[in-house]
Write a structure and sequence with these properties.
Layout lengths: L6 E5 L4 E6 L27 E2 L25 E4 L11 E2 L5 E8 L2 H6 L5 E8 L3 E9 L6 E7 L2 E3 L6 E4 L5 E4 L5 E4 L4 E3 L4 E5 L6 E5 L4 E10 L2 E3 L2 E6 L1 H6 L12 E15 L4 E9 L3
Length: 288
Amino acid sequence: KNSSGACVKVALYGGTIVAYADSNGRERLFVSDKALTDGSKPIRGGIPLVFPQFGDGQGKYPNLPSHGFARRSKWTFQGSSPTGSSFEDALTNADGSVTFYLILTDSEEILASWNHPFKLTLKVTFDNSNLATELSVENPGTEGFEFQALLHTYYLLSAVENIAVQGLKGLTYIDQLQGRIQVKEEGEELPINKETDWIYTNATQPLRITGVDNTNIEISISLKKGNQSHPVDAVVWNPWIKKAKGMGDFGHEEYRRMICVEPGCVSRFETCEPGQTWALEQKISFPL
């Protein structure tokens, strides 16, 4: 919690942010009422971390579960330092924001199904109306590995039919519901009125979730290798009616209360060479 009363809660299982409340006490992230938090499966909501594959990765890593192992592993809280070796408090910055880190490194269990040394670092910074998360992928090994990554962010809504996503016009998206056909987005706004599972490629401008109930969320996203920018994807997902009813950890009507807008590298695999670091970041601003 910071001095203005804004608060973040994180589960070490999956390194998943499960709550962000702004300084007015308004919760901004959706977590299903049926989400399991006992470590038996990934948490349905918040900001799950997807690595090293998205979905089944088109078969590249057949030994891995859907969306990889990061959201199913126990992370370590590093407090104010990404390299600290013991529990430390989060860091309060000069502007009043708060920063903390979590890490995940290779283990015998992970290496048994994905034989690549790695280090993942999640940096979280928040203040009274802003939340930023950065997932860094490091390769401390001697051989490169291919990976996908995603910040699977669930936003809490009063009613999905009252919102639209902006900032997508002119982009090409991969429709995962129609055999991965590629379609050009022509609309200024994307309303959510059916099952949606689309990967927008090369999303270069800030995205917005706008609506009638003071919803005006701005999302800036980036993907970098070192200091070099690379194309970043944006997934827009809502299960809608039929799929929601088939999900055991999701209420039948909860599709109306959420939208996922997820920055990532998922339309392709990137290669992390020895000694390299990639960073996937989102900066989210909520209206007060």
